[in-house]
Design a protein that fits this description.
- It is a single chain.
- The protein is mainly β.
- The chain has a single domain, classed as Lipocalin (Beta Barrel), CATH 2.40.128.90.
- The chain has helices at residues 4-24, 29-32, and strands spanning 35-42, 45-53, 63-64, 77-84, 90-106, 111-113, 116-118, 123-144, 147-166, 177-195, 200-213, 216-229, 235-252, 255-273.
- Strands 1-4-5-8-9-10-11-12-13-14 form a ten-stranded antiparallel beta barrel.
- It is elongated and about 75 Å long.
- Residues 3-11 have low confidence and may be disordered.
């Protein structure tokens, strides 16, 4: 019986330590709230090359849109995202950004676009409008209050509106050689999110897929890393890094197009969750 008081004291100490350990686990809204939104400013550095041929015989010569056509390599563009935790381990996500650019340059070399040759010395107006909608459904195979790891499947729906127009020279009469293409690109993803404190959290995501289906061929890689600070119960702020790499060949009844793009840079955002 003399060990009974010691056992009681030991049990009390154990319960007290367990309670303190439980209290020490961060309760961060970014990992526990059902709904999460953010809007921000993405500042990507871009590299874009593309070709367009007027038949299915194959893509023409690839044109560097920044060097050959004078497009800006960096701009501030909008970025927005949404997450819905619709189960203990399930989540639905969507993210959107767009980058619209134009150029006006006198060519330093001959090019061909949509079957139309354009000679060096011709002034060319160009546009390259792009937007990406990323959607995915994910499952967290490891889930705790302060951390989770999971996998997801989804799509990057890439939309292109690309055109060249010669305003001087023999090709000026050809008009605006433009093409619109919508490409749903499937991706597999791995993600992780970790609460450092009740206010600070970090997260990361990797999307990757190589595909040949229907009239599309290519691969896509996307990386996202976030550091989030939420000093208020429903409002926070974040600094992130985003990158998107796309190599795509698309064919249609009267065209063959090829795109090679990179977007990478910082993202500043404001978020809300509840």
């Amino acid at each position: 019986m003399r060990f009974f008081p010691m056992a009681v004291v030991g049990a009390a100490l154990f319960i007290s330590m367990a309670a303190r350990a439980q209290e020490a686990i961060p309760n961060n809204p970014a990992l526990t709230d059902k709904f999460y939104f953010y809007v921000g400013a993405f500042v990507p550095k871009t590299s874009t090359s593309a070709s367009l041929e007027s038949s299915n015989a194959g893509a023409g010569a690839v044109i560097d849109f920044e060097r050959a056509l004078g497009m800006a390599t960096q701009r501030v563009v909008p970025d927005a995202a949404f997450r819905w935790r619709f189960g203990e381990r399930w989540r639905l996500e969507a993210e959107y950004f767009e980058l619209n650019r134009s150029g006006d340059k006198t060519l330093g070399q001959d090019i061909t676009w949509n079957g139309q040759p354009i000679a060096a010395g011709t002034e060319v107006l160009s546009k390259f409008n792009f937007n990406d909608i990323r959607t995915s459904v994910g499952y967290s195979f490891f889930k705790r209050q302060d951390k989770e790891l999971g996998v997801s499947f989804g799509f990057h729906v890439a939309s292109y509106d690309v055109g060249l127009q010669a305003v001087t020279g023999a090709a000026a009469a050809a008009g605006d050689q433009a093409k619109r293409i919508l490409a749903p690109l499937p991706v597999l993803s791995a993600y992780g999110q970790f609460a450092l404190t009740d206010e600070w959290s970090v997260g990361g995501r990797l999307d990757r897929f190589t595909m040949t289906y229907d009239r599309y061929n290519g691969n896509i890689t996307s990386i996202g890393v976030d550091v989030n600070y939420q000093p208020f119960r429903h409002v926070g702020f974040g600094l992130a890094y985003r990158s998107l790499f796309i190599i795509l060949k698309a064919t249609g009844p009267d065209f063959a197009a090829e795109f090679n793009q990179t977007f990478q840079g910082p993202l500043l955002y404001m978020n809300a969750s509840f």
